[in-house]
């Protein structure tokens, strides 16, 4: 019954391990706290930008999973700091002895699982943002005029505030507004010949103009904002529609929002990766410390050498023991296999 | 008759010193807070100095910054003194310096209180500078090709968007100035020629506003031009229309912003002032109780601490006497030197 990955730990290396573990645990707690802040920030952003993402988009699942993973990482860090501090003192370590085993299992299974899930989401979800934004922005622009339709009455204000804050216009450029009726029919004069002509010249009966809303205007432009008749070169003095338009924001909101959200998701993903590494190190260190101190019994400050290990026996023996125990327990009365064995098997398959 | 006498035994003295040491370090933190508040206000004023004619008074943020630094210095010194007060040998070093130090602390507290009051009282001057600055800013709105003023359009536009305001007192201020530069006017158009001729100064005035006055919450696309002409737009009545443009003037908006900022800073400074007064009183008690230990070989003995040795009118009389003596002392000296010089001359 050879222990898996044994490590001889006399007193001095044990103390060093405990001290290093204490430092790593505080770093892990810090990383967990930072993840909590970052995912909170992303959640708040998504609340404002939620109208511009299609309802079927799964992106909000990422900050939620990261929030849970960050909380568990913070907890693991605090537990690790407490346990490593206590391991240097026999009186303090006594209450930890019984609790440390199940805590390690919970930390590996729960924390590790959540972190892996969050990392996976951080890698896969930003790809789906493109279509979600395309659909969401398209709907928002189409409903810009529906300020009296329940469910869409806020769209105008939200699109205007989006364009003002993020310095963008339309989906991919200001010309998107030429293909959408953004002036509500309530404010169109039916007796005006120009209005009638425009509506009739269009297959769907939409009132389309070569104008944009005021929120597309760029304050850096030297001239007062030109919003109407943008394709007519004779409508305004010194204005050539073929030149790049300095008057309006050049970027489309799709690109701006995509970059913004992908940046946030990327930052969150890299923080999750660092936390995963730190958590793995802390859990490994705690396991070695726990098994080494178990070998000593109650005498923590003793000069004796002990062995720390990951698992008391190899995979085959563990499975055999678990099976036998389960079989023996099953014979006299139905009982579950000890819960400690099953998660350890999970660890083995993970490692 | 001493003022507010309190008996101190050894334990109480030690507790007082330790408590004061902790409070002094919290007070250093408070000093850092005052410093950063002053810095924040200075940066906010600098950010918008364009619309304040560059003549706004920086008295409040400068004094907050100065008070913050002084508070850090004095309180860390006081913390060191309180720490040493528990050791008679080290305390003997500080003993002669404590009285002038406490006098300086009292002065510092008075100045801190005055600075806190200033935070509440100085918004009047801000109102004047804002009014002047905004008027000029709007005047130079169209001068985007004049060096030194080319940024004014961008500044005013971003100000109106950020603070949700329009014009100086309201959107009608834009009707009285020419905010469209002559470069972008079509002088062959009859309408333009009419407008310029109808005006004494030859300015092109319109009943229109820049786009930054538009309110995104309006249900209809923004009406910027021909605002007072109901027939120019379908289903429009400018008398009842409320949501189209921002109604507030930028002077009122900026004033509210800076007033609330300075008021909250004033409240924080007042709270910190109360804390500092408590620390000064505690330090005075510590000083008098340690001085009252009659026998330095017996640090366990009881002593009395007080605020003033005699009652207030007696202390004031004694203070005046000492000032007079100082004056008389100078006079006697001066007479002595004169008499000494006179025989020499003659």
Count of discrete alpha- or pi-helical segments spanning 4 or more residues of chain B: 8
How would a crystallographer describe the biggest sheet of chain B?
2 strands, antiparallel
Query: What does the radius of gyration of chain B come to?
Result: 33 Å
Broad structural category of chain B = mainly alpha
So how many helices of chain A?
A: 9
Ranges of chain A where pLDDT stays below 50 over 5 or more residues in a row are 334-351
Q: Care to count the β-strands of chain A?
A: 2
Count all strands of chain B and give the number: 2
Spans of chain B of at least 5 consecutive residues whose pLDDT stays below 50 are: 340-346
Going across the major beta sheet of chain A, what is the strand order? 1-2
Strand content of chain A: under 5%
* Main sheet properties of chain A: 2 strands, antiparallel
Give the quaternary arrangement of the chains: heterodimer
Shape descriptor of chain A reads: elongated
Number of domains of chain A: 2
Mean pLDDT of chain A: 85
List the secondary-structure elements of chain A in sequence, H or E.
Answer: EHHHHHHHEHH
What does this structure look like?
Chain A: Belongs to the PRPH2/ROM1 family. Chain A: Keywords: Membrane, Sensory transduction, Transmembrane, Transmembrane helix, Vision. Chain A: This is Retinal outer segment membrane protein 1. Chain A: InterPro entries: Peripherin/rom-1, Peripherin/rom-1_CS, Peripherin_LEL, Tetraspanin/Peripherin, Tetraspanin_EC2_sf. Chain A: Pfam families: Tetraspanin. Chain B: Keywords: Cell adhesion, Disulfide bond, Glycoprotein, Membrane, Sensory transduction, Transmembrane, Transmembrane helix, Vision. The complex is a heterodimer of chains A (351) and B (346). Chain A is mainly alpha-helical. Chain A has two domains: 7-129 and 256-326, no CATH class; 174-250, no CATH class. In chain A, 58% of the residues lie in helices and 2% in strands. Chain A is built from nine helices and two strands, in the order E-H-H-H-H-H-H-H-E-H-H. In chain A, strands 1-2 form a two-stranded antiparallel ribbon. Residues 334-351 of chain A have low confidence and may be disordered. By secondary structure, chain B is mostly helical. Chain B folds into two domains: 3-137 and 252-310, no CATH class; 171-247, no CATH class. Chain B is built from eight helices and two strands, in the order βαααααααβα. In chain B, strands 1-2 form a two-stranded antiparallel ribbon. In chain B, helix 1 runs antiparallel to helix 2, helix 1 (10-47) runs antiparallel to helix 7 (250-291) and helix 3 packs antiparallel against helix 7 (250-291). The longest helix of chain B has 42 residues, at 250-291. The model of chain B is unreliable at 340-346 (pLDDT under 50). Chain A binds chain B through residues 147-148, 156-157, 160-161, 164, 182-184, 186-189, 192, 213-215, 217, 219-220, 222-225, 227, 236-238, and chain B through 142, 144-145, 150, 153-154, 157-158, 161, 179-181, 183-186, 210-212, 214, 216-217, 219-222, 224, 233-235.
């Amino acid at each position: 019954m050879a222990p898996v990955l044994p490590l001889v730990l006399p007193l001095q290396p044990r103390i060093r391990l405990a001290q290093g573990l204490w430092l790593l645990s505080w770093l892990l707690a810090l990383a967990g706290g930072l993840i909590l802040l970052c995912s909170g920030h992303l959640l708040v952003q998504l609340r404002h930008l939620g109208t511009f993402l299609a309802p079927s988009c799964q992106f909000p699942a990422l900050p939620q999973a990261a929030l849970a993973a960050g909380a568990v990482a913070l907890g693991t860090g605090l537990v690790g700091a407490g346990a490593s501090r206590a391991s240097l003192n026999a009186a303090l370590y006594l209450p930890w002895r019984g609790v440390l085993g199940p805590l390690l299992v919970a930390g590996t299974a729960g924390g590790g699982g959540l972190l892996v899930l969050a990392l996976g989401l951080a890698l896969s979800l930003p790809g789906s943002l493109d279509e979600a934004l395309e659909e969401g922005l398209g709907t928002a622009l189409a409903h810009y005029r529906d300020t009296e339709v329940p469910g869409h009455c806020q769209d105008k204000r939200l699109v205007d505030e989006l364009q003002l804050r993020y310095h963008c216009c339309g989906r991919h450029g200001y010309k998107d507004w030429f293909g959408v009726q953004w002036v509500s029919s309530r404010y169109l004069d039916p007796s005006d010949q120009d209005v009638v002509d425009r509506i009739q010249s269009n297959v769907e009966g939409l009132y389309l103009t070569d104008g944009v809303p005021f929120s597309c205007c760029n304050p850096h432009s030297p001239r007062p904002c030109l919003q109407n008749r943008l394709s007519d070169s004779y409508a305004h003095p010194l204005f050539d529609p073929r030149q790049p338009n300095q008057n309006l924001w050049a970027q489309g909101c799709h690109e701006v929002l995509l970059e913004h959200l992908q940046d946030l998701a990327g930052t969150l993903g890299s923080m999750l990766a660092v936390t995963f590494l730190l958590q793995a190190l802390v859990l490994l260190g705690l396991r070695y410390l726990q098994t080494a101190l178990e070998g000593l019994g109650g005498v923590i400050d003793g000069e004796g050498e002990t062995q720390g290990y990951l698992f008391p026996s190899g995979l085959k023996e563990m499975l055999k023991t678990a099976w036998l125990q389960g079989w023996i327990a099953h014979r006299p009365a139905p009982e579950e296999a000890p819960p400690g064995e099953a998660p350890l098997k999970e660890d083995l398959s993970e490692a | 008759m001493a003022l507010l006498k309190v008996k101190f035994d050894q334990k109480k003295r030690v507790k007082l010193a330790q408590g004061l040491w902790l409070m002094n370090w919290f007070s250093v933190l408070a000093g850092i807070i005052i410093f950063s508040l002053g810095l924040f206000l200075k940066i906010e004023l600098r950010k918008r100095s364009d619309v304040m004619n560059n003549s706004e008074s920086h008295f409040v943020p400068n004094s907050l910054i100065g008070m913050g630094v002084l508070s850090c210095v004095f309180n860390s010194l006081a913390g060191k003194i309180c720490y040493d007060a528990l050791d008679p040998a080290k305390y003997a070093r500080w003993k002669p310096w404590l009285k002038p130090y406490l006098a300086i602390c009292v002065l510092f507290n008075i100045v801190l209180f005055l600075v806190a009051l200033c935070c509440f009282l100085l918004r009047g001057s801000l109102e004047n500078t804002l009014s002047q600055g905004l008027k000029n800013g709007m005047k130079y709105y169209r001068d985007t090709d004049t060096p030194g003023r080319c940024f004014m359009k961008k500044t005013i536009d971003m100000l109106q968007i950020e603070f949700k305001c329009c014009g100086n007192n309201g959107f009608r201020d834009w009707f009285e100035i020419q905010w469209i530069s002559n470069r972008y006017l079509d002088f062959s158009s009859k309408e333009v020629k009419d407008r310029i001729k109808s005006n004494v100064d030859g300015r092109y005035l319109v009943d229109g506003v820049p786009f930054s006055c538009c309110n995104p919450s309006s249900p209809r696309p923004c009406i910027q031009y021909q605002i007072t002409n109901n027939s120019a737009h379908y289903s429009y009545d400018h008398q009842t229309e409320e949501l189209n443009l921002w109604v507030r003037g930028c002077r009122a908006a900026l004033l509210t912003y800076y007033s609330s900022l300075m008021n909250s800073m004033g409240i924080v400074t007042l709270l910190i002032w109360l804390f500092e007064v408590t620390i000064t009183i505690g330090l005075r008690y510590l000083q008098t109780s340690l001085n009252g230990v009659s026998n330095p070989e017996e640090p366990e003995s009881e002593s009395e601490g007080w605020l003033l040795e005699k009652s207030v009118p007696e202390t004031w009389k004694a203070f005046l006497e000492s000032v007079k003596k100082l004056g008389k002392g100078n006079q006697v000296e001066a007479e002595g030197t004169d008499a000494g010089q006179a025989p020499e001359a003659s």
